[in-house]
Amino acid sequence: MSNYRIGIDGGGTHCRGRLVDSQGNLLAECRGGTGNVYSHFASALTEVELVVNELFTLANLPKSRCAESVMVAGLAGANVPSVLQRLEKWCIPGLQHKIVSDVEIACFGAHQGQPGAIFICGTGSQGAVWDGQHFQLLGGWGFMLSDLASGAVLGHRALRLALLAHEGIIGESSLTQHIMSSFEHDAEKMLLWTQQARPKDWALYAKNVFDYAQRDDYHGTSLVRESAKDAELMINALLRQTELNIALLGGITEPLTPWLSSDIRRQLVQPKSDALAGAILMAKQIQG
């Protein structure tokens, strides 16, 4: 049996790590940069390695103890089959590991390994159902095609709306003026920004949307209602596939939940633990 277990939660914004001993005692936690292996394959895996190294450093353990460890890494983008094939060739020398998608460890953690379902709405979004033996995933194909109710999609919609208002195509609001002010009210500066922007950059504007929606800003309210409608679409799709409990997770869960219908809110449960706990629990099962 291995002496240590490592859990990695690599999302679109950052990569978190947790190290415990064989009894489950916490030894270290830390975080690094983006862990999305679809959009940033090489750099995301570098972040995983850096987080693992940092965990052992914080725990005052030599790196050689990797040989006594098992790691489960849940990484954004690992749901894509071609990415999983590339990941088969990757390893940290001496470290036994398994790589799954970040939504799988989140679902495992939310229900403590028991059957259940989740919908994550953070930088990206994705749904998952765990029946006790297999996962079934919904969404998670990136904000250009998928990721309904995610921060990145909400931010993208907000900037598009702000530009329309800037050009006088639709009416302005305090939200659209605030967004354009971050680009000095210059459409070309916004355009140049989009050429380098990552999903996490788009998602930063989601907070502005929720803030202004709370102030009854017309465009802010409209955007949040659209995100809530998208979330309900995904949650209802999960409900059609399972009668199991569904938990809502992710960075925009708290501000989005009040905008969901009362029928949907009644069907949601609180997650029992987080994604890192799910990864650690998976690692424990690998240990036997």
* Number of β-strand runs: 10
CATH superfamily of the largest domain: ATPase, nucleotide binding domain
Number of helices: 11
Helix content: 40-55%
Head-to-tail CA distance between termini: 7 Å
Percent of residues in beta strands?
Answer: 15-25%
CATH-level-2 architecture of the largest domain: 2-Layer Sandwich
**Order of H and E elements:** EEEHEHEHEEEHHHHHEHHEH
Low confidence ranges? none
Count of all domains: 2
Walk me through the structure.
The protein has 288 residues and is an alpha/beta fold. It folds into two domains: 4-112 and 272-287, 2-Layer Sandwich (Nucleotidyltransferase, domain 5), CATH 3.30.420; 115-270, ATPase, nucleotide binding domain (Nucleotidyltransferase, domain 5). Helix content is 45%, strand content 20%. It is built from eleven helices and ten strands. The strands form two sheets. A five-stranded mixed β-sheet has the order 3-2-1-4-5. The chain has a five-stranded mixed β-sheet with strand order 8-7-6-9-10, sandwiched between helices. The termini are close together. The mean pLDDT is 94.
Compact description:
By secondary structure, the chain is an alpha/beta fold. It has eleven helices and ten strands.
What topology does this entry show?
Blueprint: E1 4-10, E2 15-21, E3 26-32, H1 41-58, E4 69-75, H2 81-87, E5 96-101, H3 102-110, E6 116-121, E7 125-130, E8 135-139, H4 151-166, H5 174-181, H6 187-196, H7 199-214, H8 218-241, E9 246-249, H9 253-256, H10 262-266, E10 268-269, H11 275-287
Parallel strand pairs: 1-4, 4-5, 6-9, 9-10
Antiparallel strand pairs: 1-2, 2-3, 6-7, 7-8
Helix pairs in contact: 3-11, 4-5, 4-7, 4-8, 5-7, 7-8
